[in-house]
Amino acid sequence: MANARAQSAASIPTPTGLGAQKPKYTPHGALVLEDQSRLSHSMIWNWMRAFYDQNGIGAWSNGIVPNFVTTNCCIAKMYANVLFGFLKDVLSPKGQAAFRADLSEPIYIMELGAGHGKFSFLMMKQLLKMKEFFPKTEAKFPFKFIMTDFTENNIKFWRNHTSLKPFIEKGLVDFAKFDAEHDLEIRLILSGKTLDKHTVKNPMIVVANYIFDTLRHEAFRIYEGKLQEALITVTSERDAEPDLNDPGLIRRFRPKWTYRNVSHEDYFTGRQADLNPILARMVKRKTLRNSSILIPVGGLNCLRNLIELTNGRLFFLSGDKAYNHESEMKGLRDPHIAIHGSFSMMVNYDAVRHYFESRGGFSIHTPYQDGFKVAAFVLGARKALVSEARLAFMQSLKSFGPDNFSTLQRGIKDMVQNPSLKLVLSLLRLSGYDSDVFYKFKQFLIDKVGHPYASEKVQQDVRKDIAEIYDCYYPLSKSKDVAFEIGRLFMSMKDYKSAMEYFVDSLRDCGEHHVTHYNLGICHYYVGDFASALSSFNMSIEIKPDYHEAREWRNRMAHKLNTMGNGSGAVARK
User: Fold this and answer.
1) CA separation for the pair 126, 147 (Å, rounded)
2) Dist CA 548 CA 542 (whole Å)
């Protein structure tokens, strides 16, 4: 059965090229690729999809798209606390009645646009740490996780990722190809089940970080109380652009904006007609008499479909670059499109809030206007019946949120020239034992934790920290080899057996490297396994024949297989 699709508001043609058309130029000589288009119909959104489809996991593993703020253990713990609170709300006696919950079915937790999959992995890890406190249901676990994306390349990556296999084996996770703007059903790949308004028996939790900012928008301004639509003209500085589907155009296009008067009463049509009241409210606000407005129509299309799919029982937790307050929209300015590999636009959470409130729902927001925003939008029960989730949101996100943590760890790294070991360990523990934070401070830890700098008690504590860090490690980029660096840390503590385990994992996850084999050789030497040491040094030289240090150690092993030798055993880094 083909995926059910929502009726699109308008037909959006796929650009192919300027062809035989006579090129058009701006007065300043820029090539016009698209002239005065409604923003949501612009060709630029096709480039966005092509960018993620072509780059796949490389969009993140190669560092093209920044993602730390939404893919670390700290934010995963914050979100997991809120999700766990909502699970308790739904499965309480009053919650079961209000949400019409079915205890024989799991509550689905779905991540939209899971991308590389790391954040889904971290949220599942954090939720399972609370297993002892799960509400009682007929199922072994009260929830099932669904990782979704619109491109099959990412789904293939998840299915083969070693970190996700334990969750697959437990039946805790499933995958789905899902177009956030259009699909009305979710077809699960592993179980073969289709989720739609007839089969979803419980409220659904949906998590979406940095998703709405990359979906289609409409742009407006209110000029002296009159609503005007922003039309985009897309230009290029090149003389010719033969392929208008090329996502490389993201790096070189320039938008120009013009405005025309429109009516707030009937601007949106069809299924999107429910957005006109949002425009009407903004036009009527005296405080917005001269203001610039973005409406996240792609995100609101997604929410409309999810509300239908869940029969109006939805807990939507979203983090994004966003406006929480209408005061942030004051002033006349052109829409801003930020370029960072792909591109993004500010998300109007205030509009989303009114969309939910018009359907009897409510929302919770982080309080600050600057930085990364988080909001929860809820439908299906009165606010008083969602007390556990609201409490968790207040305690986990309002006073010290994801953006605060990201700023803190970056500030310590960049501004504290000689941090104490206690400070770095405190940051690691505050992070929820995040592997990226560990990687940023790896050399400091290797220098300070080894003998004779750290006491035995401190080293034992560090071993516990490392176990937690590695438990939450999700290999993504071969250039960020966390297992290798942990191996070096254990070498600095002269724990060569433990170091070897991590070097073996490094070879598995990040591939063959001459330095990894060299360090394995050193470890084998110090535990008295000289034959394995010789084999490791030989492998290192095979990969890099001119690796001088490995040649010296190989010669030593060849001549002194039955003696301890006098080598320094220096820890090599890549």
Assistant:
1) 16
2) 12
In angstroms, the Cα distances linking 68 to 155, 210, 378, 410 are 21, 11, 27, 11
Q: Residues 6 or more apart from 169 whose CB is under 8 A from it?
A: none
**What is the pLDDT at residue 114?**
96
What residues in the chain have per-residue pLDDT under 50? 1-13, 16, 19-20, 564-569
- As given in the structure block, the two tokens for residue 557 are 């092993």
Q: How high is the pLDDT of residue 61?
A: 87
* CA-to-CA dists, residue 154 to 55, 70, 185, 384, angstroms: 10, 18, 19, 39
| Cα-trace Rg, the chain | 27
Sign of CA dihedral 436, 437, 443, 449: negative
pLDDT of the residue at 12 = 46
Peptide bond into 402 cis (omega under 30): no
Q: What is the number of H-type helices and E-type strands within the chain? A: 22, 18
Per the CB < 8 A criterion, the answer to whether 404 and 442 are in contact is no
Nearest to 432 by CA among 51, 25, 75: 75
Provide the CA 170 distance to its chain's centre, in angstroms.
23
Tell me the C-alpha distance between 113 and 212, whole Å. 10
CA distance 303 to 181: 8
Q: For residues 309 and 571, give the distance between their C-alpha atoms in angstroms, rounded to a whole number.
A: 56
| DSSP H stretches of helix in 493-547 | 496-510, 514-526, 530-543
Q: Which amino acid is at 131?
A: K
Alpha-carbon distance of 16 to 556, in angstroms, equals 65
Residue in the structure block whose two tokens are 């880094």: 573
Average pLDDT, the chain: 92
The alpha carbon of residue 347 and the mean position of all alpha carbons in its chain are separated, in whole angstroms, by 16
DSSP letters of 337-401?
A: -EEESEEE--EEHHHHHHHHHTTT-EEEE-S-SSS-EEEEEEESS-GGGGHHHHHHHIIIIISS-
Tell me the HSE value of 310 on the side-chain side, using a 13 A CA sphere: 25
